[in-house]
Amino acid sequence: MKFSYPTEIIPSLHLACHKTLELHEIVAMTANYLTEFKMQLANIQDSTCEVYIWRLSVALCKIRLLDLLPFYEKAPIPMMHSDNHEMYSSKLIGVDLTAFYVGKLLIFAKNALCNYAGAITETATSSLRERFQSQLQKAIKLHANVFNFMLERSYYPAYHLDQLLANDLKNANAPLKR
């Protein structure tokens, strides 16, 4: 007997809010890494690494974004349902990359939280678990500091879903067009 996942039983008019936020997390992270990978490509000296690892990573990031961006039209934000997203410029403005690099720090901190939480649950050695717990607390503080910095400077409009998703579209489309 072959198991298959059911198709959508009830076609939804829009994504659930919590699924929209999951979509945001993946698109924001992927766009950030794609931008960084493209910036670093010129510094890869090993041709095998460049062709089979780096360029493949760039291509996979592009595919992920192209696969996921159409779902933004199903976000529970009326302005996202328009075919006209020209208001979200894909051009880099100026040369200040503070928002980009601080976004990398936010992704780093969030990944650290997940990694430490997983490591704590899998560790039987109490002294190592205590060390992981201590480092988890420091990672939580780093995440809070980075998040607050970004929020204060409007780099991360966490409380405005429409702006958050608009930033995702802008940040995802920019490296796709370069």
UniProtKB/TrEMBL annotation:
It is found in: Spore coat. The lineage of its organism: Bacteria, Bacillati, Bacillota, Bacilli, Bacillales. This is Spore coat protein. PANTHER family: SPORE COAT PROTEIN F-LIKE PROTEIN YHCQ (PTHR39183:SF1). Gene3D superfamilies: 1.20.1260.10. Belongs to the CotF family. It comes from Domibacillus iocasae. Its main location: other. Pfam families: Coat_F. One of its GO terms (biological process) is sporulation resulting in formation of a cellular spore. The keyword Repressor does not apply. Coiled coil: none annotated. Keywords: Sporulation. The keyword Cytoplasm does not apply.
